[in-house]
Amino acid sequence: MATSKKTMKSINKNNLPDTQGLEDTRNLPINKVGIKDILHPMVIKQRSGQDQTTVASFNMYVNLPHNLKGTHMSRFVHILNNHEEQITVDTFKSMIEEMLTLLEAESGHVEMTFPYFINKTAPESKVKSLLDYTVTFIGEANKGVSNLKVKVLVPVTSLCPCSKKISAYGAHNQRSHVTVTATINDFMWIEEIIDIVEKEASSELYALLKRPDEKHVTELAYDNPKFVEDMVRDIAVHFAEDKRVLEYVVESENFESIHNHSAYAQIHQVKE
């Protein structure tokens, strides 16, 4: 115990060793190293022109050359705290370059996932209520080339065309999660993606509905049946035609109400 105390006293607090900066001899570079699931407040601009304050979960990674033992984890947190509560889409883009510079890395990856709320109006009663969507911004940079992806999970209703066709009355329907991931080269509102998905679903969802509204959305879904294959194709058409979208993935998972499994479909296209 005495030896341990003596060793601690002999270390100069103003010249502490940098263990992460030591040389590594295993000759194995690391593709991604950093921090996951750190929460930080942010402000997002809505299509209405107003700001929405929310909390995002951040994942931040850089590459690590084969000859370095470790990265500086505290520097990731330092970057977030530099922006305090003013992280926006624009600052998100600059954060990636800031991260590469501060950590002396060639490639970097930043994700921020947050709940995004839209005040929706019920179709008949016109009562308003907030519905939440899960949004993720994904920024990547590698040797001077960067890209930005926007990922939005939209809950909707789907109604089975086969069930409608073969049943004397009614048809099974369920809540579905449609996820769109778009690599973009120009600005795109989150609401634009949500509008496309909800338009192509059997029916959209609302947090609050009165009885006339329930009648409306139930009958709307019945008049607009969609297989999971129909959902992804009808949605993908919009992104295939949008020049702002360089690459997209459209996924739909239907939580089948008459089965103990989900139905799933995906379309992934990289434009030339």
How is the secondary structure organized here?
Layout: H1 2-9, E1 30-45, E2 51-64, H2 73-82, H3 89-103, E3 107-121, E4 128-142, E5 145-159, H4 161-166, E6 173-184, H5 190-200, E7 203-204, H6 211-223, H7 228-241, E8 245-255, E9 262-270
Antiparallel strand pairs: 1-2, 2-3, 3-4, 4-5, 5-6, 5-7, 6-8, 8-9
Describe the structure.
By secondary structure, the chain is an alpha+beta fold. It folds into 2 domains: 20-114, Urate Oxidase (Roll); 122-272, Urate Oxidase. Helices cover 28% and strands 40% of the residues. It contains 7 helices and 9 strands. Strands 1, 2, 3, 4, 5, 6, 7, 8 and 9 form a 9-stranded antiparallel sheet that branches. Helix 2 (73-82) runs antiparallel to helix 3 (89-103). The longest helix has 15 residues, at 89-103. The N and C termini lie far apart (67 Å). The model has no long low-confidence stretch (mean pLDDT 91).
Q: Report Rg.
A: 24 Å
* CA-CA gap between termini: 67 Å
How much helix is in the residues?
25-40%
CATH class descriptor of the largest domain: Alpha Beta
Note the total helix count: 7
**C-alpha geometry:** elongated
Instruction: Tally the structural domains.
Output: 2
**Class of secondary structure makeup:** alpha+beta
User: Architecture of the largest domain, according to CATH?
Assistant: Roll
Give the ordered list of helices and strands.
Answer: HEEHHEEEHEHEHHEE
Q: In total, how many beta strands?
A: 9
Low-confidence stretches: none
Strand content: 35-45%
CATH level 3 topology of the largest domain: Urate Oxidase
- Quick check: average pLDDT? 91
CATH superfamily of the largest domain: Urate Oxidase
Main sheet attributes: strand count, strand direction, barrel closure: 9 strands, antiparallel
